[in-house]
Design brief:
Layout lengths: L1 H38 L5 H10 L1 H29 L4 H30 L12 H40 L4 H23 L1 H7 L5 H16 L4 H8 L1
Helix pairs in contact: 1-3, 1-8, 1-9, 2-5, 3-4, 4-5, 5-6, 6-7, 6-8
Length: 239
Amino acid sequence: MAEQRVERSPQVVARIGGVLYLIVIVAGILIEAAVRDKLIVSGDAAATAGNIMASQLLWRIGIAGELIAQGCAVALALVFYVLLRPVNRNLAMLAVFFNLVSIAIEVGNSLNLFDALSLLGSADYLKAFDQNQLHALSYLSLKAQGYGFGISLVFFGCECLVLGYLIFRSRYLPKILGVAMQIAGVCYLINSFALFLSPAFENRIFPAVLVPSFIAESSLCLWLIVKGVNVAKWEELRS
């Protein structure tokens, strides 16, 4: 019985990872589609402020959902380390470091979302600014959040490159998933550096540049849930 549990353990870990990945992906899509795309009006600070104030609970739910997703992402980093350390322990650890830096930036970046809401409140100290100034400051917080997210994706893109290499070399996960994850990493890096160096160009390529990333991550997520890993080859490489 003990031997059977050991043999099944990487499969259990893989499926837990798939579920965690699914939560992260679905939460990200819902937050973007149902909260930010719905409330943020590009280039219009006053309209954005009005939408946020009219849907404060929805805005707060979006922030909470994002923090939950990042908590799942931390656990997912451990899952990938456990699954891929038989290939190369040092590179698996490097992927964890890249991911944790990305998560830390994104979690800290959530303060900009709170700032955007706080600046639209009724606190006495806000009376030092007129309404238009508060709307502009709130919108600037959202712009800062966008750039902060771009910074986090630089490190996440690097993680995808390392994960892709490890998956490709693993023999217990499909090589095509490794290639797809490396393409995803390149796409994340292109998107982020385009945002930093030429926002006008980034507007032209977004969101098309991230479609390969979505396909790669969704495919890996579903593979972990449905198929998991080849336990025999995982054990062989580990030993």
